[in-house]
Amino acid sequence: MFKQLKTEYLGWIFLIGIILLISELVFFDGGLIYSLALATGCLYIGRKLSPRSVGKILYLIGIVSSVVIVLNMMIFKFFVFAIFVYILLVYFQSKKNPEWVKPYLMEPEQKKEQIESEPLLKKEYLFENKLMGHQKTTDDVYEWNNINIQRGIGDTIIDLSHTILPKGEVVISIQSFVGNLQVLVPYDTEVRIHHSVIAGRAVIFQKQETKVYNQILSYQTAEFEAADQRIHLITSVVVGDIEVKRV
User: Fold this and answer.
1) Which of 103, 162, 196, 211 is the most exposed place for a label (fewest CB within 10 A)?
2) Do residues 10 and 86 both lie within one domain?
3) Tell me: the pLDDT tens digits for 192-233?
4) What does the pLDDT read at residue 245?
5) What Pfam families does this protein map onto (predicted)?
6) C-alpha to C-alpha distance for 167 and 191, rounded to whole angstroms
7) How far is CA 25 from the centre of its chain?
8) Is residue 122 part of a domain?
């Protein structure tokens, strides 16, 4: 049923949701920002101290607080209402204009042509989009695949010494809300880094930025343009540190 939802409808729902979220944060309930920041802080600190009882308690408080805040937000109620209205519309539309399915038989030659027209190979990703939790590359040798992920809360560690990078430029793109990023780079590989951060620290080879606030950092090694193997690292984080070093 939801496959019938047109892209423009989703776009309008998303746009209205963003407007409601901004209105709720700015005009109606300024304290909501502090509540969200407090809940996020409890989640992050609780994750860091998770082996201890204090960490588990803080993490639990963060989860409960986040759920309560989201359930009471106007944008959540709007999306529930939008889904309910859409289900009703689809139901009445299906009653008015029922869909007829007509079987279509293909000739053997047509089947063969369709199958052989464009073969596709599915590839596995090293990471996945994850709302909470840490992720790191395996300690064993793995096959390389470009990385493009979005993270919520948690640390990310990428060790490039356990894979064979292809010739040319490989791309690592990471967007994270709260958490630290660490990228371990082989000595014989050139690197370009574009890092955007609201609050955190940056250690990029010998360059150290102990306090970074609302900045974009951009560096590249001297032989990057002429190198056969190049790593283009694009990262953005709201709160967290980045470390890029040789191994």
Assistant:
1) 103
2) yes
3) 999 999 888 899 998 888 888 888 999 999 888 888 889 999
4) 92
5) LiaF-like_C
6) 13
7) 23
8) no
91 and 156 part of one domain = no
- Is residue 180 included in any domain, yes or no? yes
The structure's pTM equals 0.55
What is the number of domains present in the chain?
Answer: 2
The pLDDT tens digits for 74-121 are: 778 888 887 787 777 766 665 565 545 455 555 565 555 555 566 767
User: What does the pLDDT look like over 141-178, one tens digit per residue?
Assistant: 888 888 888 888 888 898 988 888 888 889 999 998 88
Predicted local distance difference test score (pLDDT) of residue 203: 92
What's phi and psi for 105, nearest 5 deg?
A: -95, 130
Which of 38-57 are b and which e, b meaning 16 or more Cβ less than 10 Å from the residue's Cβ? ebbebbbebbeeeeeeebee
Residue 219 in contact with residue 212, Cβ under 8 Å? no
Q: What span, in angstroms and rounded, lies between the C-alpha atoms of 72 and 36?
A: 12
End residue of a domain, out of 96, 115, 149: 96
β-pairing verdict for 168-178 and 229-239: parallel
SS in 3 state form for 84-139? HHHHHHHHHHHHHCCCCCCCCCCCHHHHHHHHHHCCCCCCCCCCCCEEECCEECCC
Pairwise CA distance, residues 98 & 82, whole Å: 23
- Domain match, 231 and 183 both: yes
Do 90 and 161 share a domain, yes or no?
no
Structural domain including 212 reads 130-246
Distance CA 205, CA 185 (A): 10
